[in-house]
Amino acid sequence: MTNSNEIAFSAQSDQGMSKLTPDQYPGILLDLLDGHLADVNRNIDVVICGMAGAKQGWMEAPYLETPANLGELGKKAIAPVMPSSGLKPRILSGVCQSANGNEDVMRGEETQLLGLLDLRPGFSGIVCLPGTHSKWAKIENGALKSFTTAMTGELFELLRKHSVLRHSLTDELTGENTDDGISQGLSESVESPQLLTSKLFKTRAASLLSGRQPDWCAGYLSGLLVGSEVAGHKNWLSDEPIPLIGSAQLCSLYTKALGMVGAKTEIIDATKATLAGLSAARKQIIK
Amino acid sequence: MTNSNEIAFSAQSDQGMSKLTPDQYPGILLDLLDGHLADVNRNIDVVICGMAGAKQGWMEAPYLETPANLGELGKKAIAPVMPSSGLKPRILSGVCQSANGNEDVMRGEETQLLGLLDLRPGFSGIVCLPGTHSKWAKIENGALKSFTTAMTGELFELLRKHSVLRHSLTDELTGENTDDGISQGLSESVESPQLLTSKLFKTRAASLLSGRQPDWCAGYLSGLLVGSEVAGHKNWLSDEPIPLIGSAQLCSLYTKALGMVGAKTEIIDATKATLAGLSAARKQIIK
Fold first, then answer.
1. How far apart are CA B4 and CA A287, in angstroms?
2. What is this structure's pTM?
3. What is the pLDDT of residue B2?
């Protein structure tokens, strides 16, 4: 990020917490910046969110506790040292909710929520961030009041890769058959979210008995999981449209599911929200 | 099984459908019988139930369709050939429910249900068979009217072995801490079965934030899954005690869960039910 607050360039790496030891992060960062540093000079701010701040990440950035003032994210950032690089990276906090019986944690989504507040100043209400671990967040007066995590995306991957259902599923969620499966799964599960564990096996049985194809089954399974998550959060919903922060494909799926329980959505691109959040946090950082 | 209908001996193998090709079954069977055949002479009946009759098993035994008269199980058995062994094994059918949108299959549990009818002549009502794939069955006038499958046991294993929760879990479900976790998981999930996917992640968060130990977390996860299954079947329940056919540990867990929704249970040892079912099927086989 340059001083002008415009995005000078972006770069990605598939390296993350699960693959790296703490001392490998500086090298990965320099590799990503390589070739770009000359353009923007070395006087740039590096602001980082997500699992790099986890205990098993680069350096642990303590959690903010709910209700968490998102205006404090940058101020609480920690600064790992990168001697002789000229860089002073900052890692943003995650947020935790430690009330007994209601424990929850996030790292990364708080920055997207800060980004949402930058894109929609004064926003209050419910936000849904679909993904591997979907988050549902209550935002009020610039603070993250409370949140939940649904393991929807991870469950889909576990079932697809390791369960008895794997014989009945494709890898990709595309095509007319898949859309038909999604609709069927969503409607069953929005109707009876409490029957999720009993519905899952129907994916297999429908393929054995009714000749359902793997693309239909993958859609059905995905619909069951998303429908159950959305219907489980029914009492979080109001008449206000719900911002969805995620990939285009997931946001479209959640829009369909939320439509079935009478809720409207507003789709916000996840990368855009992340960059807006990092920019906003950067302005908060005390130099 | 000898002609006297008493159990002459029993033997076990850890070999099954997932490890064997069809032509390996006869050898495994002979190995199991080795040393015993002389005692009982070779004129014995071999009756088999379960996944040996699946498409990927020894030889496919077609399903009976619901409502399935359990008195027909033996009559519909198929007979793979074992030349020069003197043995004529029979593989019993599984049961399927092929109504579109309600598809389900079982192999093995139908034999345990037949065993239940032998142990409790004239039984009608709901039966629960907890396990990797738990079954809930409606029995009426000697027939299996309809059933559902909950992937409770498989989900527990998937989450324990492959998910992000694995860092927070022990392998064994024993001890006071575990019992405490089970109670907590059961009560949350019986209260709100529709929130299962949102509750699962609390296993991880409770270990990170509240110092919950791996034995507590394993109990909690197990309680969440079983509680959700049981509460999802609330409208199956009546004042009659529900026969539970399964391992002692699982039956005790399900008794606790069913108690929370006001249902009584009667525990029936799974091996006893299987042997009673095989004996009853043997009498039905047309020679």
1. 89
2. 0.93
3. 47
* Residue A194 to residue B228: CA distance in whole angstroms: 7
Between the CA of residue B179 and those of B130, B161, B168, B222, B223, what are the distances in Å? 18, 21, 16, 10, 9
Per-residue model confidence as pLDDT tens digits over A165-216: 999 999 889 999 999 999 999 999 999 999 999 999 999 999 999 999 999 9
Candidate from A96, A154, A202 with C-beta closest to B209: A96
> What pLDDT, on a 0 to 100 scale, did the predictor assign at position A2?
47
Distance of CA A250 to the CA centre of its chain: 11
Q: How far apart are CA B140 and CA B125, in angstroms?
A: 6
Which of A197, A201, A232 shows the shortest C-beta gap to B198?
A232
pLDDT digits (tens, 9 = 90+) for B135-162: 999 999 999 999 999 999 999 999 999 9
In chain B the domains, ranked by start, together with CATH numbers, are: 152-268 (3.30.420.310)
Contacts of A101 in chain B (CB under 8 A): 184, 188
Strands in A104-106's sheet, in edge-to-edge order, are: A64-65, A95-97, A104-106
Question: Chain A residue closest to B233 (CA)?
Answer: A195
Judging contacts by C-beta atoms under 8 Å, the chain A residues touching residue B227 are: none
How crowded is residue B24: how many other Cβ atoms within 10 Å of its Cβ?
12
| Residue B148: closest CA among B249, B232, B64 | B232
Question: Crossing angle for the helix pair B152-162 and A152-162, nearest 10 degrees?
Answer: 100
